[in-house]
């Protein structure tokens, strides 16, 4: 009986456990299938992810990685599988316990606007890269497994570095005491400093063309050409210029225009540095010219007395020497040399304002009209003579013959500067100068002036040459010229109560402006007429 009971009990127990075992097997299969499904889904996510993804176990071995991880660390997916995570992320190198110190990423600096923390990665070739890393533990895995998403921060760091450098450069730009402008190749202002605002009064020049912002309209074409040429030839230009404040008040500046090159690229910008010309410097310049005038005048006066004696005695000797005598030719050469010396002395006397002038009331318009044919012959067929005459031009009190010489000297200089032909323009205008403008622009007393502007389209003058133009015997012509043409112009105009200003740009032509005082009697008559007209009008009220 007992033998029957035991097998029966065993059978009942087996029958009782059989459903539970079947359930366990079913659950195990489902769990394995679910894990396999998760692995497949994870592998699909990793392969299709737009960021680098790696899976590694707590012991540090990389189990799999996507193609972007391979590109990031410059390895193939197959090479990454089996590598130690610490060889790619040094901070995750396995510790003494044989485990990856994932807790070390908890205290790492969070990436600004990133997905995780910022760490340093290392490529296969040993170079380091900044990374934004998000590390998560995969649930239900034994041993523990971690999934890492990594993003390259190199571009972000480059942008941040460029921004810091830009801020540094902007700080340098603002710290410079001289006015600075950065121009794009089309001439528009892209940056400026505080000194520019303080000197010119223009507070918002961004996006405006340099010439429209600061120059008179007649100077726009030349300025446009200068900026374009500076950038295209990568050559620095230096020149004197008159900037205009918003009120129209002029500011005399010396400019240095330099192409701005970024590395080895072709320049697309130019930097304009301005150095305002102080009134003290202008005063010193005129004082120097006055000292040269006195020196030249003293020498010319003494030399003129000697030449008068030489020429006089030469004439006496010629009357006593027979025409067939060999000595007569020598005496004639002495007389010719004396006459040439006398002509030079006359020009030096004109420069030093000691030449005897015979002023008369005249109109520059009539003088230019009468000289136009002579100027055309002097310049030749390849050069045109253009006149722009103010029909209401005031009269001046000056020596007619010497003014003709002034215009001829300027025309000869223009001809020599226009080697391939060009245009000479003579323009007249009236101009009233108040005290500050008169001193700043022309070193003249306040008053009314007749202006003669002589402009050519020649080769222009270098800045170094402009400093010495009026000095006697200074010449820019290597093969010819005594260097007294502009000295004579300067002396005659100054002795007539006016002044001469020259504006020139290398390869951009030269403009000479001659200021002559308005004839006083005419100005007084005009004032009386205006006063009388006012009284007549006032009487009818």
The geometry reads as: elongated
- Helix tally equals 15
Q: Name the helicity range.
A: 40-55%
Separation, N- and C-terminal Cα atoms: 156 Å
* Average pLDDT number: 75
Please mark out the parts with pLDDT under 50 across 5 or more consecutive residues, or reply none: 45-49, 295-300, 347-354, 530-541
Per DSSP, what share of the residues sits in E-state strands of 2 or more residues?
15-25%
User: Strands of the biggest beta sheet: in what spatial order?
Assistant: 2-1-5-4-3
**Coarse structural class:** alpha+beta
Rg, alpha carbons: 45 Å
Per DSSP E runs of 2 or more residues, the count of β-strands stands at 17
Q: How many strands, what sense, and barrel or not for the largest sheet? A: 5 strands, antiparallel
Q: Can you give a write-up of this model?
A:
This protein is α+β, with helices and mostly antiparallel strands and 541 residues long. Helices cover 46% and strands 22% of the residues. The protein is built from 15 helices and 17 strands. The strands form 4 sheets. A 5-stranded antiparallel β-sheet has the order 2-1-5-4-3. Strands 7-6-10-9-8 form a 5-stranded antiparallel β-sheet, with helices on both faces. A 5-stranded mixed β-sheet has the order 12-14-15-17-16. Strand 3 and strand 4 form a beta hairpin. The longest helix has 47 residues. The C terminus is likely disordered.
Chain-wise SSE layout:
Blueprint: H1 2-48, E1 52-57, E2 62-65, H2 67-73, H3 77-80, E3 117-122, E4 128-138, E5 145-152, H4 154-175, E6 180-184, E7 189-192, H5 194-200, H6 210-214, H7 220-233, E8 237-244, E9 250-260, E10 269-276, H8 279-320, H9 326-351, E11 359-362, H10 364-379, E12 383-388, E13 396-399, H11 400-417, E14 422-433, H12 435-442, E15 447-456, H13 463-466, H14 485-495, E16 499-504, E17 510-517, H15 520-539
